[in-house]
Every structure is written in structure tokens, then in C-alpha cells.
Amino acid sequence: MRIRAETVADYNEVFQVNVKAFGDREDEAQLVENIRSSQGFIPELSIVAEKDNEIVGHLLLSKAVVQDGEKLYDVIALAPLAVLPNVQKQGIGKALIQEGLERCRTLGYELVFLIGHPEYYPRFGFQPAGLHGLELKQFAVPENVFMVCELKEGVLQRIKGELKYPETFF
Ligand SMILES: CC(C)(COP(=O)(O)OP(=O)(O)OC[C@H]1O[C@@H](n2cnc3c(N)ncnc32)[C@H](O)[C@@H]1OP(=O)(O)O)[C@@H](O)C(=O)NCCC(=O)NCCS
To answer: What is the pLDDT of residues 109-120, one digit of tens each?
Structure first.
């Protein structure tokens, strides 16, 4: 298996991977398309897993901000993550997340947020964001699915406020 950045030639295949992973619905695939054409898109953070020349998984990380009064902090939002149903539970999601977090760290980002399965993401260092004084008001979700991963030690003590997803997410 090879983990690499997505290229323009992959767009159609990535669309299909997202459709299939999310039970034959297009919402997440469309979200990927919308983020790609937005200011929050960072090409090297759209990552694919390739097996036998076929794309079997995709992860997108893009820009968001945390607002604390007048202060704005640049952070990353992880969404979506998709692995083809016939190859799930083989470590492809794990490989994509690990590579994604490493790339974010290299680019200098300190926090990665997501809304996701509370049993899956803690193994990669994600914790409930609410425990650290971070808020989410744009989506009404249970507390334990709004998570954050600290890429640099101590950052969660310094940064508080409300996570704001860009317009593209709505
Ligand atoms: C979630 C997903 C990306 C995981 O990818 P994957 O390649 O199967 O994951 P990995 O092989 O790295 O990890 C497998 C582990 O994740 C767990 N897992 C998979 N889906 C899960 C879910 N929905 N909730 C909780 N745990 C889940 C498996 O039980 C397995 O646990 P184990 O290692 O303790 O046995 C994949 O199942 C998927 O595409 N699901 C549909 C789309 C989706 O829900 N995306 C995430 C939105 S938050």
C-alpha cells in the first residue's frame, strides 16, 4: 500500500471512494469537492491510500480557525476520512491519519479538530475538545464526538475558544 498526496487525476476516484465508504451517499464526496475549491484547501493534506493502482482510502485535512475574543488561531479540521468497505479494518484509516497528522505537524499546525467516532480516534491522540475549554457551536453534536489532537505539547493549555468551520462545511 502507498500513502501519497492526491493529484488532479485522482479526483473522480476519490469521489467514488467517499460515496462508497459512506453508504452510497454523496454528501461527503461533495464536501471534498467544495473544500477543494475553497480557500481552506491545502493540496498536500488531501491524502490517498493506493493499493494495486487503485485508490482505496482518502483523508482530507483543511483550514479552520479557533476564535477567542479578538484572537484567531489557525488550526486544521479533519474531514472526511473514507476507506472502501471491502478493505476496512486493515489499517488503511490508521495509515492515512498518521501520515495526515505528521504532515500537519511539518506544516507548523498545532491543533487538529474533528467530529467523529469516539471509539476510533482516541488511539491517534484525539481527546474530547470540551475538556480543554474548546467549544463548538455550529453543529449540535454529543460532547464526546467533538475531538482535538495536540501536535505540540502544551498548546491545549494556551489555546481556548470556539472552533469555527469555514462556510464550505454548511
Ligand atoms: C472509519 C474508517 C475510516 C476506519 O478505517 P479503517 O481502515 O477500517 O480503520 P483501521 O483499519 O485503521 O482501524 C480499524 C479499527 O477501527 C474500528 N472502527 C472502524 N469503524 C469504526 C466506527 N465506525 N466506530 C468505531 N470504531 C470503528 C474497527 O473496529 C477497528 O478497531 P480495532 O483495531 O480495535 O479492531 C472506515 O471504517 C470508514 O471509511 N468508515 C465509513 C466512513 C466513516 O465513518 N468515516 C469516518 C467518519 S468520522
So the answer is: 999 999 999 999
